[in-house]
């Protein structure tokens, strides 16, 4: 049984979607003959395309010769999908001979074009919800504090862009003539899709962690909290500053270690200047190699995670696996996954004052730290492993083919 995977690559990084894709697709080779067709974004500004292709082949994943005729390197990176004509040109160059097309991180519509042209059944997985306009605006506003007035241009572009991206994704879902199923990494992610007469599945588990992380767990914590992810406003990098400064004004100095890569120089500048101007004990460690990251996180008292852009949050799952509890916004997608886990404290989305209060309480009480080592949290972590995620995806594809 042969499946064609259409995605932008299999190199995992700090993006939850890419980590999922890398771990799941490599394991699907245990169930199917897998071939990889790169989406257009694979070619855009990618100087290492040929090296990546060779690395993918090492995992017993086939890449058809048609790859050599695909070249979209002259395109510029775009938050929104490209034009209809570009995707049509792409699909006309690719001839498929497989039983099923699977898009493990549906963000752009190449898989839809290929399925429509070939008549082959299609399945897609969503990692982020389809955002309504009011949520796009409100969440973007929340994430820019304390720099909203300096970031109005970003606010307008992000709010409108996120809404247009949702509308485009919805359009291509409606246009998909052979779409067999839509899967979501969380309940709330899937419920954001309004398409009718299409089978829907909640992946359970939706994401996983490597067993290696469990070996770093320790109760011997040091006096700091952590934050790590892709360092963009929607993930909470600016709210962190606001929260820590609120506590400083109350006479509580919180030490924070932050890791990851800034995507915008403008916000990196805001970040560093605000720390200096307000004498905050925030240390930026840059983008760390995984083992170094795990050591830092495992010794932290807490993960402070004011993100408003997650469909599941692998960051939270990894933090729990490393023995570090979490305070996070009650984003519906994230809350639907972790609501029963006692080592996480949720506060209302965008409520920086409540998050500051909960941080202050935890630094005094250690309640969450004790809960991260209890049986309920531990069994949750053990269940969320990549073998189970891949097995779940494989069973859905097999059901579709049967």
Automatic annotation (TrEMBL):
Q: What lineage is on file? A: Archaea, Thermoproteota, Thermoprotei, Sulfolobales, Sulfolobaceae
Please state what the protein is called: Glycosyltransferase Gtf1
Q: Which Gene3D superfamilies match?
A: Glycogen Phosphorylase B
What InterPro entries does the record tag this protein with?
Answer: Glyco_trans_1
Domain Glycosyl transferase family spans what residues? 218-369
- One Pfam family, short name: Glycos_transf_1
SUPFAM superfamilies in alphabetical order: UDP-Glycosyltransferase/glycogen phosphorylase
Q: Which domain of life is it from?
A: Archaea
Keyword annotations of the record: Transferase
PANTHER family recorded: GLYCOSYLTRANSFERASE WBBK-RELATED (PTHR46401:SF2)
Any one GO MF annotation of this record: glycosyltransferase activity
């Amino acid at each position: 049984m042969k499946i064609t995977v259409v995605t932008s690559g299999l190199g995992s990084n700090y993006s939850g979607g890419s980590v999922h894709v890398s771990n799941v697709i490599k394991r699907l080779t245990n169930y199917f003959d897998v071939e990889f067709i790169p989406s257009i974004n694979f070619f855009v500004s990618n100087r290492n395309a040929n090296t990546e292709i060779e690395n993918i082949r090492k995992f017993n994943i086939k890449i058809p010769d048609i790859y050599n005729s695909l070249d979209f390197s002259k395109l510029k990176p775009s938050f929104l999908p490209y034009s209809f004509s570009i995707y049509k040109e792409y699909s006309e160059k690719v001839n498929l001979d497989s039983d099923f097309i699977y898009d493990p991180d549906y963000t752009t519509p190449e898989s839809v074009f290929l399925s429509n042209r070939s008549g082959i059944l299609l399945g897609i997985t969503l990692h982020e919800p389809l955002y309504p306009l009011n949520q796009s605006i409100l969440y973007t506003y929340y994430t820019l504090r304390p720099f909203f007035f300096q970031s109005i241009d970003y606010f307008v572009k992000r709010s409108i862009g996120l809404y247009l991206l949702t509308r485009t994704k919805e359009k291509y879902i409606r246009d998909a003539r052979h779409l067999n199923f839509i899967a979501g990494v969380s309940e709330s992610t899937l419920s954001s899709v309004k398409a009718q007469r299409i089978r829907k599945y909640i992946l359970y588990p939706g994401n996983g962690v490597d067993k290696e992380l469990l070996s770093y767990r320790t109760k011997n914590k040091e006096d700091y909290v952590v934050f790590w992810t892709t360092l963009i406003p929607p993930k909470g990098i600016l709210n962190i500053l606001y929260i820590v400064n609120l506590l400083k004004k109350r006479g509580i100095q919180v030490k924070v270690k932050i890791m990851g890569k800034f995507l915008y120089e403008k916000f990196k500048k805001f970040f560093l200047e605000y720390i200096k101007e307000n004498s905050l004990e925030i240390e930026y460690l840059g983008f760390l190699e995984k083992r170094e990251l795990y050591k830092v996180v495992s010794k932290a008292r807490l993960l402070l995670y004011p993100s408003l852009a997650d469909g599941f949050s692998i960051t939270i799952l990894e933090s729990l696996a490393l023995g570090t509890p979490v305070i996070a916004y009650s984003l519906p997608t994230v809350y639907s996954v972790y609501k029963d886990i006692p080592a996480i404290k949720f506060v209302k989305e965008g409520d920086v004052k409540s998050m500051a209060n909960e941080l202050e309480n935890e630094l005094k009480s250690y309640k969450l730290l004790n809960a991260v080592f209890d049986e309920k949290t531990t069994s949750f972590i053990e269940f969320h492993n990549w073998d189970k995620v891949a097995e779940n995806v494989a069973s859905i594809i097999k059901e579709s083919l049967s």
